[in-house]
């Protein structure tokens, strides 16, 4: 019985193998269709690129859109002899360039697709479709377009990924595009979307025969998520117009939220210059400009804050109890102790409010020394560290943690720094320049605008940020909703606010040029020393005095006095934002017609020209 079953099993196994062998013989020898299909067809996996998310301003106006273009691809193995002149005529590419790109594609891979011509418009793509160029095909892409031609440094630009990025991030492949600066970089993962894949059946001539298996293996691209920016496009355009011909920046913040209303850096560039096939040449031209238009001065420059910093010292003095709003100090056209610090003419002696109004240097020299020489708090090194902690609580000496990845730290010196510089032998008079925002202090215009917002809020700020809404999310990052409090109690801010109000509205105030009837602007001028030429002009303000809606910082290199250059610009920005109009066209003309010399940059440009 067992022997019979084994016999039957053997017969069944042999029969199965015979059937399989006969089937293979039929497929491989008798029926040539499978062989023809394998030899004459290949699967081509085409990446389906998503459109990047649009960027709107706070009022719903387009700042960045995506425009349809096509990349011409080639698979060298699939090409046949073709009319080179015709292809170049259709695409507008020189024959030499096409041949160079073809050679590059051959070196890369004969079997894999390479880009030979980038960013062709749709009408050119349709002309290519009308003719047969075996081995060539087009891929849908999008490029950025900028309806308002503003905010180049703020928005940033997009360009092709390099090998380092491909090695770091497996999402990217050769030919992909990525945000390189500004919002495009900071919100790259939000804006880029998700790539899809289309699987096509291609014959031996490189001609697409259709979608493989009716597209069941295709995946659709997911468009990038739109972003609503906190920027006011009209206000941004005004700031850039007022900055033309100058080197500097304007930053405006909504104090109650930390939303950035304006971030203008000058010189800037038309963002469309870094789009399209001429973007590489344009980038090199911008790179060769000694005034550095690609450099976002609003977040990447480190400047001395100048006299705008005096209010920080005043607030620290009030909190430390070494002075009151009524405390008076004399000014004999400067601080006369030691090497002294000069000051302009004004009445004397002055109290705290008067000193802010007139921007008295001598007053704040006395204030700083009273803070550092307060023996109830320790020796000068200990009191200096206490002072530095106060300063950092205002957002100086560190990144504010905004949504700008290129944000600069700024610098607040430490007692260790001075110990090393002076071999431990220094005192409050040694660092007297810190009293007026000079010396080793360094901050970005964003940090100065944040100071204005902090004073407007009477002691706290929200982290400045440039994105108001991400359209597929309920909220932006939670850190932007958290108030950050300084180490100075809110009650001490009122004398400073009163002084800033009088600086704009009272006779003898340093910022009377910034006055706009009915807007209650509170401001502080600053003149910062510059080792490369004329002093820098700076001004910060907020308005209205109660329930402020906007805080502004303007910093103009070589602009001299704060009231001369920076204050008029800030005043116009405030007026435009709060009233939606400008009532002082003569002030606009005054700002536009300013002639500021920049010998340092001129020398740098001449040096660059000689090296070419």
Provide the fold topology.
Elements: H1 2-30, H2 33-40, E1 41-48, E2 55-56, E3 62-74, H3 84-91, H4 95-108, E4 114-120, H5 122-129, E5 136-145, H6 152-155, E6 158-160, H7 163-168, E7 177-179, H8 182-186, H9 188-191, E8 196-203, E9 208-211, E10 227-229, H10 233-243, E11 248-254, E12 259-266, H11 279-287, H12 297-300, H13 310-320, E13 334-335, E14 341-342, H14 352-358, H15 361-372, H16 380-393, H17 415-421, H18 445-456, E15 460-462, E16 467-470, E17 483-485, H19 493-505, E18 522-528, E19 536-543, E20 550-556, H20 566-579, H21 585-592, H22 599-611
Parallel strand pairs: 2-10
Antiparallel strand pairs: 1-8, 2-3, 3-4, 3-5, 6-7, 8-9, 10-16, 11-12, 11-20, 13-14, 15-17, 18-19, 19-20
Would you kindly provide a brief summary of this structure?
With 612 residues, this protein is of the alpha+beta class.
Structure commentary:
- This protein is of the alpha+beta class and 612 residues long.
- The chain has 2 domains: 44-229, Penicillin-binding protein 2a (Domain 2), CATH 3.90.1310; 233-281 and 296-602, DD-peptidase/beta-lactamase superfamily (Beta-lactamase, 3-Layer(aba) Sandwich), CATH 3.40.710.
- It is 36% helix and 18% strand.
- It is built from 22 helices and 20 strands.
- Strands 2, 3, 4, 5, 10 and 16 form a 6-stranded mixed β-sheet that branches. The protein has a 5-stranded antiparallel β-sheet with strand order 12-11-20-19-18, sandwiched between helices.
- A hairpin with a 5-residue loop joins strand 2 (55-56) and strand 3.
- Helix 13 (310-320) packs across helix 15 (361-372) and helix 14 (352-358) packs across helix 19.
- The longest helix is centred in the first third of the chain and has 29 residues, at 2-30.
- The radius of gyration is 33 Å and the shape is elongated.
- The N and C termini lie far apart (99 Å).
- 42% of the residues are buried.
- Residues 32-40 have low confidence and may be disordered.
């Amino acid at each position: 019985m067992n022997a019979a079953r084994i016999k039957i099993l053997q017969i069944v196994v042999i029969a199965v193998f015979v059937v399989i062998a006969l089937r293979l013989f039929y497929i491989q020898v008798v029926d040539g269709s499978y062989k023809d299909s394998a030899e004459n067809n290949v699967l081509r996996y085409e990446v389906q690129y998503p459109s990047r998310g649009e960027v709107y301003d706070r009022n719903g106006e387009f700042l960045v859109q995506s425009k349809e273009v096509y990349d011409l691809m080639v698979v060298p193995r699939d090409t046949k002899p073709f009319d080179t002149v015709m292809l170049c005529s259709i695409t507008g590419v020189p024959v030499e360039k096409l041949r160079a790109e073809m050679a590059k594609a051959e070196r890369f891979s004969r079997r894999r697709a390479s880009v030979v011509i980038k960013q062709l418009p749709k009408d050119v793509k349709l002309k290519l479709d009308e003719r047969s160029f075996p081995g060539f095909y087009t891929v849908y892409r999008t490029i950025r377009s900028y309806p308002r031609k503003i905010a180049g440094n703020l928005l940033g630009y997009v360009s092709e990924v390099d090998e380092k990025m491909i090695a770091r991030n497996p999402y990217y492949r050769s030919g992909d595009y990525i945000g390189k600066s500004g919002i495009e970089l900071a919100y790259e993962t939000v804006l880029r979307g998700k790539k899809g894949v289309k699987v096509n059946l291609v014959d031996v001539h490189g001609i697409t025969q259709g979608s493989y298996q009716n597209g069941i293996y295709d995946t659709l691209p997911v468009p990038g998520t739109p972003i609503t920016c906190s920027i006011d496009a009209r206000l941004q355009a005004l700031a850039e117009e007022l900055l033309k011909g100058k080197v500097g920046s304007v930053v405006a913040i909504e104090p109650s939220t930390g939303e950035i209303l304006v971030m203008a850096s000058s010189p800037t560039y038309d963002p469309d210059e870094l789009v399209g096939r001429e973007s590489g040449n344009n980038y090199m031209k911008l790179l060769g400009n000694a005034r550095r238009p690609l450099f976002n001065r609003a977040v990447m420059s480190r400047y001395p804050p100048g006299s705008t910093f005096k209010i920080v010292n005043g607030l620290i003095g009030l909190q430390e109890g070494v002075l009151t709003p009524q405390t008076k100090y004399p000014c004999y056209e400067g601080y006369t102790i030691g090497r002294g610090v000069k000051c302009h003419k004004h009445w004397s002696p002055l109290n705290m409010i008067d000193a802010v109004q007139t921007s008295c240097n001598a007053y704040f020299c006395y204030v700083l020394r009273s803070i550092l020489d307060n023996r109830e708090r320790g020796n000068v090194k200990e009191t200096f560290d206490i002072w530095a902690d106060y300063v950092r609580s205002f957002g100086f000496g560190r990144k504010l943690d905004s949504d700008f990845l290129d944000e600069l730290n700024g610098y607040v010196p430490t007692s260790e720094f001075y110990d090393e510089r002076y071999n431990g032998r220094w005192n409050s008079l040694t660092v007297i320049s810190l009293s007026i925002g000079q010396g080793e202090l360094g901050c970005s215009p964003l940090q100065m605008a944040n100071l204005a917002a902090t004073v407007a809020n009477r002691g706290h700020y929200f982290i400045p940020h440039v994105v108001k809404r991400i359209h597929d999310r309920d909220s932006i990052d939670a850190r932007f909703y958290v108030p950050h409090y300084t180490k100075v109690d809110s009650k001490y801010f009122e004398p400073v606010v009163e002084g800033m109000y009088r600086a704009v509205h009272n006779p003898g105030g340093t910022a009377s040029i910034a006055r706009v009837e009915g807007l209650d602007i509170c401001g502080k001028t600053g003149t910062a020393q510059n080792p490369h030429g004329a002093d820098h002009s700076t001004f910060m303000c907020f308005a209205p005095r109660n329930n402020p809606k906007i805080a502004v910082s303007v910093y103009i290199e070589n602009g001299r006095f704060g009231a001369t250059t920076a204050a008029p610009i800030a005043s116009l920005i405030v007026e435009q934002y709060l009233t939606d109009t400008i009532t002082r066209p003569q002030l606009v003309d005054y700002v536009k017609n300013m002639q500021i010399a920049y010998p340092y940059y001129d020398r740098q440009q001449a040096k660059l020209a000689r090296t070419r």
